[in-house]
């Protein structure tokens, strides 16, 4: 039978990939958009699905708006991907971040509990909940220690997912996803900031990129594989929580080196901390600089996930490795910059 899914955050990175996957599987896909306007449509356009998703206007801040939407479309599955997802911004906007990422999830859960409690619900939880990590690698049993308003808000939502499952027997899943990137990643995140910046440097449109902490380590995977894990979670007999990660970690510095390398630059490092500079070995030009502006008041130094449970129970396993991911993103941005120059 044809299923109906509602994806919140449809215009984000994961929303676009998940929308495509569910359409391929024959779902009727409703995409909730908070009216970000035509400019927010680029990902759906790039995937060629902008006319196939049924866009509805829904903001996680507005209870009645969500209520009417769920009552009208009564989805079989909801994927809650909408969020203020930029950790750095959450320090400046902790209340907005909590309203959307914590209370917004509760609004959805409570509305479903009232209207259609059998709805299967996926919540986009995050490795940021591990923050100052209490164990390496992190598993579903590792204690949480969030380090940002974003992490704290997502942890509230995570426990609500667990609570609604236990209290009302609802099919609610928390996917604890480690960083996942792609050519559709937002430009504010370090990976895309780097690959887009490097493509512009390569084509003479920019001199350098200014960044923050180069020593933070992340477990970076490929978004298009992670959204398959989301779908799998909602197809199981029992609702549960799962980590999706690669089991490999790399520093931001390694990302810089590898991304430059993939377009023919060799980076030599000079200086320490905020005085660090990444220099082009061939020309001696400074291509990377560090500024305190991009440091966070509290940093997550190291993330490394163990995806064993997802492999065993869901049969989910990431294939794309760090080097391939960086190359894929750099190549996509080189193509975009060439287009922009035309
Ligand atoms: P993203 O590209 O930033 O997309 C988030 C989407 O949420 C955007 O389309 C945004 O709308 C929408 N949104 C923001 N505030 C909203 C509100 N008040 N009401 C309705 N929609 C709202 O994020 P992503 O990388 O695809 O991530 C998807 C989800 O997974 C997020 O919840 C994120 O926190 C979580 N997550 C991401 C990662 C990762 O590495 N990517 C890892 C773990 C968890 P606009 O387009 O209008 O801004
Ligand atoms: O930072 C460091 C920064 O903003 C990664 C979101 O999808 O993944 C993402 O959160 C690291 C941090 O992602 C710059 O300090 C250095 O240590 O790309 P990011 P994030 O904070 O890890 C998690 C799992 C989510 O759930 C989030 O929604 O890179 N860094 N220099 C920088 N970061 C940025 N953005 N910009 C810099 O210039």
Explain how this protein is built.
- The radius of gyration is 20 Å and the shape is globular.
- The strands form four sheets. It has a seven-stranded parallel β-sheet, with helices on both faces. Strands 8-15-14-13 form a four-stranded mixed β-sheet. The protein has a two-stranded parallel ribbon with strand order 7-10.
- The chain has 342 residues and is of the alpha/beta class.
- Helix 3 packs parallel to helix 5 and helix 7 packs parallel to helix 9.
- It is 40% helix and 17% strand.
- It folds into two domains: 201 residues, Rossmann fold, CATH 3.40.50; 107 residues, UDP-galactose 4-epimerase, domain 1 (Alpha-Beta Complex), CATH 3.90.25.10.
- It binds NADP nicotinamide-adenine-dinucleotide phosphate and ligand F7E.
- The site of ligand F7E has 23 residues, from helix 4 and helix 7.
Concise account of the structure shown:
The protein has about 350 residues and is an alpha/beta fold. The chain has helices at about 15-25, 40-45, 65-75, 85-90, 95-115, 150-170, 190-200, 225-235, 250-260, 310-315, 320-340; strands spanning about 5-10, 30-35, 55, 75-80, 120-125, 170-175, 180, 210, 215-220, 220, 240-245, 250, 265-270, 275-280, 285-290. Catalyzes the conversion of GDP-D-mannose to GDP-4-dehydro-6-deoxy-D-mannose.
